[in-house]
Design brief:
By secondary structure, this protein is mainly α. Strands 1-2 form a two-stranded antiparallel sheet. Strand 1 and strand 2 form a beta hairpin. The protein is built from eight helices and two strands, in the order H-H-H-H-H-H-H-H-E-E.
Length: 300
C-alpha cells in the first residue's frame, strides 16, 4: 500500500529534513538529542504498526510529534487511527496532512499527487464509514427506544393484570365472607326479637304480672285492716282484690304459656335440628306474707 511506502519514506528522509542547516555546538547537541529521541519514537511506532498494535503505535507517533512537529507524522497517525477503527481521529489527521502536504519539501510533485490521491480515497471511504456508523448508531438508538417502550408497555400491562387479579381476589373473598355470614347467621325473619307476637306476649305477661302483684298487695292491706277493725267493707275489698289477683295471675300464666309455646314452635321451625319437649320459657309465680312474685325466664 502507499501508506506503507510512505512510512518508509519518512524514515529514509528524516535526517535530511531535520538535520539541514548549520547550528552552533551547544544548539546542535541539544537538537541532535531531540532528533535521536524523535527518531526512536518513530521507529518504535513503525514496528508496532507493522505488528498490528495500532494503539501502541499511536502513542509512539504522538510522542514523536510533541518533540518535533513534523507534518509527515499526521499521515502516520491517520493510518494508525484508521487501522484501529478510529474514524473521527483518522479523518482529522488525514485533513491536517493534506493541509501540510504542499509545505513538505522532500517530496516530489509526483509523490505529493499520489499521496494526495490516496489520502482523498481514504477520506471518502472513512466518510462513507462514518455515515454508515451514524446510520447504524441511529438505528441502534431507535431500536433501544423501541425495546424500552416495549418493556415499559409490558410492565404497564403486567401491573394492570396484577391489579385486576388483586381486585378480583378481594371481590371473591368479600363474597365468600358475605356468604358465610349469611349462611351462619340467623335470618331476620327467624329471630324471636323480630316477631310481633313475641313482644306482645311479653308485654301482656309483664302487665298481668304487675297487676297480680298490685292486686295481691292491696288484698293484703285490706285483709290486715279487716282483721283489725272487722268492717265488712274491708273484707269485701280484700275479697275483690283477691279475685283480681287471681285473674291477673291466670292471665299472666296464660300469656306466658302462649308465648312459650309459640316461641318453641317458631324455634323448632327455624332450626329443624332442635329436638326435645323442654320449653325455652319458664314463668314461676310465688306469694308469701310480704307479697307475690312472678319469675320469668327465656332461653334463646
Amino acid at each position: 500500500m502507499h501508506g506503507e511506502w510512505f512510512l518508509g519514506l519518512i524514515a529514509a528522509t528524516w535526517l535530511l529534513v531535520c538535520g539541514a542547516g548549520p547550528a552552533s555546538a551547544q544548539g546542535g547537541s541539544s537538537h541532535s538529542n531531540q532528533k535521536k529521541l524523535h527518531d526512536a519514537f518513530v521507529s518504535a511506532g513503525r514496528v508496532l504498526y507493522g505488528e498490528g498494535k495500532y494503539a501502541e503505535a499511536i502513542e509512539q507517533f504522538e510522542k514523536a510529534l510533541e518533540i518535533i512537529p513534523e507534518p509527515k507524522l499526521f499521515f502516520n497517525l491517520a493510518q494508525a487511527h484508521r487501522m484501529a477503527g478510529n474514524v473521527k481521529q483518522a479523518l482529522t489527521y488525514y485533513r491536517r496532512f493534506l493541509e501540510a502536504l504542499p509545505s513538505i519539501k522532500d517530496m516530489t510533485d509526483g509523490q505529493k499527487k499520489t499521496a494526495e490521491s490516496d489520502v482523498m480515497k481514504w477520506i471518502a471511504q472513512l466518510e462513507a464509514e462514518k455515515l454508515i456508523q451514524a446510520e447504524n448508531a441511529e438505528k441502534e438508538r431507535l431500536e433501544k427506544e423501541r425495546l424500552e417502550k416495549e418493556r415499559l408497555e409490558k410492565e404497564r400491562l403486567e401491573k394492570e393484570r396484577l391489579e385486576k387479579e388483586r381486585l378480583e381476589k378481594e371481590r371473591l373473598e368479600r363474597e365468600r365472607l358475605e356468604a358465610i355470614a349469611a349462611s351462619s347467621g340467623p335470618r331476620r325473619q327467624d329471630q324471636l326479637s323480630q316477631q310481633w307476637w313475641f313482644w306482645t306476649g311479653i308485654g301482656a305477661t309483664t302487665l298481668l304480672a304487675l297487676g297480680t302483684a298490685w292486686a295481691g298487695t292491696r288484698m293484703l292491706d285490706y285483709n290486715e285492716d279487716w282483721k283489725r277493725t272487722w268492717r265488712d267493707s274491708d273484707r269485701d275489698k280484700a275479697i275483690l282484690y283477691q279475685n283480681l289477683a287471681d285473674l291477673s295471675l291466670v292471665g299472666a300464666l296464660g300469656a306466658g304459656l302462649t308465648v312459650s309455646v309459640l316461641s318453641y314452635l317458631h324455634l323448632r321451625k327455624a332450626s329443624p335440628g332442635i329436638t326435645g319437649k323442654t320449653s325455652p320459657m319458664a314463668l314461676v309465680p310465688a306469694c308469701d306474707g310480704a307479697g307475690c312474685m312472678l319469675t320469668f325466664t327465656l332461653e334463646f
